[in-house]
Amino acid sequence: MDTHSPGHTAAPTAPLLDPFALAKALSGVHLIGGEYVPARSGRRFPVVNPATGIQVAEAAEGDAADVDAAVQNAARAQKDWAKLPARKRGALVYQCAALLKEHQEELSRLIALETGKALRTESRVEAGVVADIFEFFGGLGSELKGESVPFAPNVLSVTVREPLGVVGAIIPWNVPMLLMALKVAPALVAGNAVVVKSAEEAPLAVLRICELMNRILPPGVFNMLSGMGPECGAPLVEHPLVKKLTFTGSVETGKIVARAAAEKLIPVTLELGGKSPMIVFADCDFDKTVSGALTSMRFTRQGQSCTAASRIYVERPIFDRFVAAMTDAVNTMVMGDPLDEKTDIGTIVSEGQLEKVRGFIEEGTKTPGATAHVCSAMPTDPALKKGLFIQPVIFTGLTKDSRLVREEIFGPVTVIAPFDEPEAVLAEANDSEYGLAASLWTNNLKVGLDLAHRLEAGLVQINQNLVVQANLSYGGVKSSGLGKEASLEAMLEHFTHKKTIMVNMG
Ligand code: NAI
Ligand code: MG
Predict the structure, then answer these.
(1) Distance, CA 24 to ligand 1 centroid (Å)?
(2) pLDDT tens across 257-309, in order?
């Protein structure tokens, strides 16, 4: 056993494929200054397996005292970290990616246990993309370049990229490892130190990643706190030594984070979800588009995705056929124990989210004129009877003023509506508070590209709807957020500032 901090349980060095044992081993600690430490207050909160309702671990419940310790450690460590050559920092982050790959199966199982996301269809995919993100940014150290700027013949004028200092990162529970990687990887390579506050529903896999990376990184540059939003997240965003905020989650909390950034006059990046339209034309490749709709709606993640295609518009001639084919396809998906290889669809993350999603389904079902196509069988295993399973629902017959069409449900619920004209569907698609992602399905690229340019969204895909990919700028417009993640631009624009230096040689 690797005992970073005597007196506290610590996780083993080698990959541990039993997620129950690993969850226990990771109980009760933050990771601050390269050490496992309990909450200063000694408080802990339960981590529950959403497939059974049974507690599998406890997490340290952080407050302002823990935040201060982590930020002070980060601020000290950042000074030396920033002095390392950028390529050396990148090389260390790249090395972390290799270690994360060695632990991919372990991390997949742990994230499946704590979030209820199916191992085969979701959790392994997430763990793979996480390693890829660290590998991608690890290779970008030498891109932290400045410019020489033409000013006057006898004045040398150059710019340099400098890190911002300590970055405070707040992450959600739906794809916690990936959404964390999008923040931590570029922040570190750019020479910042990071303090992450994990989501209360999913504190374990990100803690394990932090511990693995701390075997390679100098202590203090990457710290992990667990705790509640107001008690642990708020003091992090307000801490005077935190010089940059980056947040993924709800619009409501995003505004709190943005207000704190405004108060301190520091930069902030926000990714706040969406109500992403999928527009299907009658000339599309029908079968590919039906399976594309399943992927787009992220049914294997119970729809708990900020880019979920939660509004699907289908050209009228194929509307009925499309709804029937999509319902049939969702019906073939297997719902069950997230850790079972046969399972396509696992559980909702928490009771609170389950209630929220049920509320939307109830409202849709009661709406006059609406039809609820309820898909996919519930698991029958008695061990799962307290599991937070919910059957996917495809609604038709809802009008555009319905809350189900306007609000982010973050559950396995989508709405399909017919359309007749490209201009009309474009207007409906853009009639939203959100603007994160959109997809178009057609073989007519003239129409597709025209709409792609006029859709109000940060990411528009034609004939596919992939999740976040390394090297492609990702981030929304309108209430979906501010700034970009996942790309070189994200590292340069969001984790450094540009200093101008002038030398008068006259
Ligand atoms: P949330 O935005 O409240 O939570 C996200 C993170 O913010 C968590 O780590 C939480 O502890 C933290 N937080 C909460 N209050 C805070 C505060 N006052 N100061 C600092 N940090 C704070 O989201 P929640 O409650 O988990 O989910 C509610 C809804 O938000 C979901 O149903 C979904 O619609 C949306 N959401 C969107 C996500 C996305 O990927 N864009 C991810 C998660 C949720
Ligand atoms: Mg909340």
Answers:
(1) 25
(2) 999 999 999 999 999 999 999 999 999 999 999 999 999 999 999 999 999 99
- What DSSP assignment string belongs to 221-238? SEEEE---IIIIIHHHHH
Residue 10 has pLDDT above 80, yes or no: no
Q: Which of 106, 122, 200, 271 is catalytic?
A: 271
Q: Which of 250, 310, 468 to mutate to test the pocket of ligand 1 (most atoms within 8 A of CB)?
A: 250
CB contact set of 409 (below 8 Å; sequence gap of 6+): 303, 310, 356, 357, 360
Q: Is 271 a catalytic residue?
A: yes
Kindly report the pTM of this predicted structure.
0.97
Q: In sequence order, which residues have a C-beta less than 8 Å from that of residue 452 and are 6 or more positions away?
A: 440, 460, 462
> Residues with Cβ within 6 A of ligand 1?
170-172, 174, 197, 199-200, 229-230, 233-234, 237, 248-250, 253, 256-257, 271-273, 306, 353, 356, 408, 410
Q: Helix 86-102 crosses helix 104-115 at what angle (to 10 degrees)? A: 70
170 CA distance to ligand 1 middle (Å) = 9
- Which residues are within 8 A (CB) of 101 and not within 5 positions of it... i.e. 6 or more apart? 131
Whole-number Å distance between alpha carbons of 349 and 389: 9
Nearest protein Cα to ligand 1, atom 29: 250
Ligand 2 centroid vs 253 CA: distance in angstroms? 7
> Which domains are seen in the chain, by residue range?
19-272+481-499 (3.40.605.10), 277-469 (3.40.309.10)
Contact criterion met (CB below 8 Å) for 36 and 8: yes
